[in-house]
Fold these 3 entries.
Entry 1:
Amino acid sequence: MDSNVRPESMKRIVNLELANAFIEQEVNKVRAQVKDKKVLLALSGGVDSSVVAALLIKAIGKNLVCVHVNHGLMRKGESEQVIEVFGKELDANLIYVDATDRFLNLLAGVSAPEQKRKIIGGEFIKVFDEEAKKLTDIDFLAQGTIYPDILESKGVKAHHNVGGLPEDMKFELVEPIKLLYKDEVRIVGKALGLPDNMVFRQPFPGPGLGVRCLGAITRDRLHALREADAILREEFEICGLAEKVWQYFIAVPDMKSVGVRNDMRYEGWPAIIRAVNTVDAMTATIEEIPYEVLHKITARITNEVEGINRVLLDLTPKPIGTIEWE
Ligand code: XMP
């Protein structure tokens, strides 16, 4: 049987009881698989890797080594939060690696989306490999792969956490949630006792802001994107949309338009708002953001973010648009 295919008989996890049964089953499976060996986990701080971390901490405790790589493509404040929540509150075995320069140097001048993803995915593996070599007894690599990643990697995108592993990789994989849909992952996270603000956090792609800083990434445009995204998130929190909308973010294309600021010609990039609702990320609809909220976000972004001179709204459902722009 193909272990990457969800069996027809597998019940959809819709409540804590089913989640607990799933957890018990996976904890036993993980223990049987890894025994007293150590497992390395790429902890991005997103829902998927956080749930895998909690599950593995339950199964093998300190034999789970979490590595958080700051690839320089995180959202504002995100790496700091990973250190706070996992390093301090959950007392995990956590290693923090700031690899910003490595990633951004490799990505300089690269504009093709799939190539960017491959570079980011490949470099991730290298960084983990380096970390693993510094540690002893690491035999396993845990990943927060979920079912839509597997389904979509068959055709649409080379998601780094499914398609990007080198052939000669010496780790055996531990992927306890690879047959779950996103809504199921959240219920499992709740059952594991993770805080709500982590379990219900919107998903964030492995390549991070790299697939939202469209085309060839530059540090100044990436900085503008990060700041505009932080404003969008802040304003969605204030008006209550953060709880309601499944995924929302800014994308910044590699093009400039003419504008005026302080009576001077001001060329800048547009910030594109994308806010979508979905159950499983396979299809998505558009959130109807009230105009007053849009006006406020526009005013803040164009006034506060260096390099941005327009704000646009993406009205495209999936299909035909994917959720991300790249
Ligand atoms: P798309 O853009 O394919 O996105 O409609 C569906 C969901 O997957 C997320 N996504 C990714 N997640 N690595 C990830 O881990 C990726 O390369 C990647 N690309 C897209 C996206 O944010 C959305 O939630």
Entry 2:
Amino acid sequence: MIGRFIAVEGADGTGKSTQARLLAERLGALFTREPGGTPLGEQIRDLVLDPAGEAPVDRAEALLMAAARAQHVDLVVAPALAAGRDVVSDRYVASSIAYQGHGRGLGAGSVAEVNEFATGGLAPDLVVLIEVSAPVASSRLGDDREGELDRIEQAGDDLQGVVADAYRAMAMADPDRWVIIDGDGTVDEVAARVAGTVDDWLNPRWDS
Ligand code: TYD
């Protein structure tokens, strides 16, 4: 039996990581994240997101994300799915299309090609997009400002706006695979929306 692969996506400040974790717990699925998910992937994450030191140029950023992803797919995601385990990943290929393809302006096509190579074509069965209004996302990131914003979060609201628009366009273009969840509200409220939508997707009711 092959497990189901669910990716949770969203711009920064949408609460996506919390919701991805809760969804995985609820489904009894393996929870994992990108960039990261393996020791080497987590090292790449530190390199690419650390605001200190030499910033990768945009193409290097895309390739580092893809390198971490290749490692993650071969060592974590694919083996779990093959063993029949469901997998919930906090971010996957759509993050690279949104941030590097659109946000950094590298183009969705070339970033998709690099990621096809990196993943061997492994695509999620379902992508859950968490959306919040721009002011909510910005103020949630602002709440973190005393702490640490990573290098990409520091790029600011313009990049986040482009990323949010790119996600929405991807979701609209592939409605069989993507669901959009309103991320405004408490953690519990949003988690209930995610749970209801994912349950409907996993167990479709033919009468509705
Ligand atoms: P994120 O997953 O939001 O982690 P946290 O919630 O702990 O801050 O942060 C990862 C950052 O990496 C985020 O700004 C998006 C960025 N990113 C890309 O630009 N491309 C990618 O392919 C991935 C996976 C992440």
Entry 3:
Amino acid sequence: MSPYRIAVIGLGEIGLKRHLPVIAAHPNFEIVASAKRHPVATDIGGRQYRDYREMLASEPAIEAVAICTPPDVRCRIALDAIAAGKHVLLEKPPFSTLGEFRRVRLAAERAGVTLLGGWHSQFNVSVDRARDILAGQQVAKLEMVWNEDFTVYHAGQEWIWQAGGFGVLDAGVNGLSILTEILPEPLVVRAATLRIPRGAQTPIAVDIDFAGAHDEDRLHAGMDWRTPTAERSIEIVTRSGQRLWMPNSGRRLELDGTVLVDEDNMEYPRIYDRFAKLIASGGSQLDEAPLVVVADTWLVGRTVPDDTAI
Ligand code: NAP
């Protein structure tokens, strides 16, 4: 079978560093074009456009697009790509709002094209194993820590501090996307605090308390971009006393001190494996659960000012 002809829209950190190399090495995809508003010097192995609409109109042979822009413009781009009959892979968080989720899902269903929302942290073997272990269990304790220094991964990204830009939730939603995938019950936000730096519309640090089955249960997620050292981990203790420990952005899984999974970052090759399978089978995969947690955090959370210079 010949590879699917794909174009990448948005070539920044993630488009250049993850999507292009993975597509180049993948047997089921062939890069034919890209679009971003300011051209890049890099030879991407396909034709470069400044306007994705011009690309869609000029390159009818494109079968699929990967949208790697910031989230606020993805809905419009996805709808235009779907209208042109293309299969669509969306970087995370797929959209800025739940309404966009529903509109694009419906458009893809009507057009009969594949849609994949690539919550990349869900594409780890550890996630599948943790989900199996937790099935049918109750969680008595949950502690998610998703901390890093924002200047390392998000230097110069003005969009991240603007409304719809997510701030620290852009990174924290990766941990939340693991939780929504592995926990046996839906995550219910009870209270939250969002710390907003001066001049920003989005938080630099967020604390979320979730409602457990019992009042004494402590279910908490903290994400902080003011920390010099990165730590991304999840600890879960079940009512029956089992302890799951997922450090290294959730790629390692220990159960009661025994290592079950410890692997390198294979998330993006697996996303493209899944995309190829979905296109072949005519399916779609678009999970809105992580964005529901983000939306609920804003709905019940209180905002407090923060002095960090951004
Ligand atoms: P970025 O470095 O700011 O890159 C965004 C890219 O989108 C730029 O190339 C920008 O180029 C392009 N763009 C913006 N609007 C566009 C439009 N209307 N049409 C075409 N291109 C457009 O951001 P990033 O870090 O790659 O993040 C992008 C997404 O990937 C975010 O949702 C983020 O959560 C996700 N992600 C990022 C990382 C990471 O480590 N950075 C990891 C995983 C996932 P022009 O301004 O020239 O158009």
